[in-house]
Amino acid sequence: MLKATLHHSDRILSAAISPDGQFLATGSEDSTVKIWSLHSGELQQTIFGHSTAVLLVAFSPASKTLLTRSRAGTVKLWNLQNGQLLKRLAEVHRHESVAVSPDWQILAIGTTRSTVKLQHLNSGQLLQVLAGYQGDDISAIALSPNGKMLVASGLNAASGFCRATVTLWELPGGEVRRTFGSENYVAISSDSQILVNHGGQTIKLWNLQTGELLHSLQTAIRITSAAAISPDGKYFAVGCFDGTVRLWNFRGELLHTLDGHSSPVSAVAIGLLGETLVSGGENGTVKLWQLRIED
Length: 295
Description:
4-stranded antiparallel β-sheet; globular
C-alpha cells in the first residue's frame, strides 16, 4: 500500500530508514540530504552540507547520527539532533565506493587500485588493506552483519569494461575466501548466509559458506543499482528501469511488484521489521510503502 509521496528537486541517489523506525533520510542529485518523519512523511530538516550529489546516507545504530558521502568524495558525520556537522570522516576519490559496517565500527573504501581499505570509523585509523580483487574500479561493497565477511564487485576495464568477478574476503584475516559471478551490485542477507548480486536483468543468490549458486532469477526488465535486503530476512527488493520495485524471497519467488514511479527507481531502503519500504525515483519522487510480507 502506498502511504505517501515526498519530493526532492532532482534524482534520488540514496535512502535509509533509522533503526528506531522514526526517520527516513534521502540523498539527492540536488546535493541535499532530507530527513523525514517516517510516520507522517513530514520534512524534519534539510542538510545543505555537500556541494555535489549525495551517494550514500546511513544512520548510526542509535539513530542519533548520520553518515553521508558525496560524489566529490567527502564522507561526513552529522548530529541529527541539531543538523550540525560533527566531523569529516574521509576524503575519497569520486570513483571509489564506500560502505559502513552494521556496527558502525569500520568504514570500508573500495579503491581504484583494486584494494579495499578498512579504517576505524571515528578515529580514521587504517586497520587493514584487502588485496586480491580481480578487477579495476570497485563499484559496490557489502559487509556481512556478523562482521566476518566483506564482498566487493565492480568493473574490469582491461576486458572492455566487462564486469569483474565478485570477491569475498574473510575477516579479520583478510584472505580471499572465494569468488562468485560477475554481477555489479552486491548485498548480504541479515543472517550472513546468502549473497545477493544483480546486474542487467539477472539476480543471483549464492550460499556464502559453500559458494553454491542457489537461484538465478531472470527479471525480464532491466534492474537499476537500487537494491535492499529486509533486516528481518524475509525478502529483498530491487529497483527497475520501468519504475517498479520487485520484491523476492530467498527461495527465488516473486512476492510483489510495487508500481508507483513514473521514472526509473534509483534508491531503495527497508525498515527494521520489513513492513516499511522506501523507493526513490530519478525524477526526485520518494514513495513510502506499507507492506505485509508473509513467511
